[in-house]
User: Fold this.
Amino acid sequence: NGYSAVLTRADRAIVIGCGGDGLPALAVQRQLQRNVVSELDAAVFPQMNDLYASGAEELLQGCPVRIVAAPEEGKYLRAAKRGAQENELWTASLSLQFWKDCTLETFPLDETRLIVRLAVGDTVLLFTPPGVDLALLPKEKQKADAVFCTGVEPENISLAQCATCVVSAEPSHVQMTASRLAARGVATLPAGETVYLKTNGTRLRLQNA
Assistant:
């Protein structure tokens, strides 16, 4: 079980999370190779635990990255930071505009967790660690077209006003999360399915693995 989302365009990419059982860094690296990506624009780790970061060190050692965003170093980033290139930026709070129409922002909630907000044109995605409270985001940043979470959806998810939640968890946990979200009018999709979002002319293909 773990969480990794790879966002690619042409030969550019951003990775959000690289964790879980097995070989999460290898899975991400294969996705990057399929898209002929040789350098990451950013690697973001919402929480420094097994779920989000067990493959962080291997990923960063195997692929150059411009910006690393994480709430803390934790055991998974210490070695990677010691071997970081001089031009790498390490931060917890990030606001980055790239690919002309994309904005990536991180919002640290405390010393161990952060929420990731990605806007592609008019389409907004939120990536949330387990059980975070969306009310802690600035009001103008709460609304989203889709929320990506684990088996524990964010508190106050109604603030996102979203119709879709992509859940990365074991099937039984996905089913329980789906039941809770259905009562709030939110559809649930398990990780691994391909999701298409279209908002005001922006069309995204999302494949969460």
Observations:
- The chain has a mean pLDDT of 84.
- The chain is about 20% helix and 35% strand.
- The longest strand covers residues 102-108.
- Helices lie at 24-34, 50-53, 56-62, 74-82, 171-182.
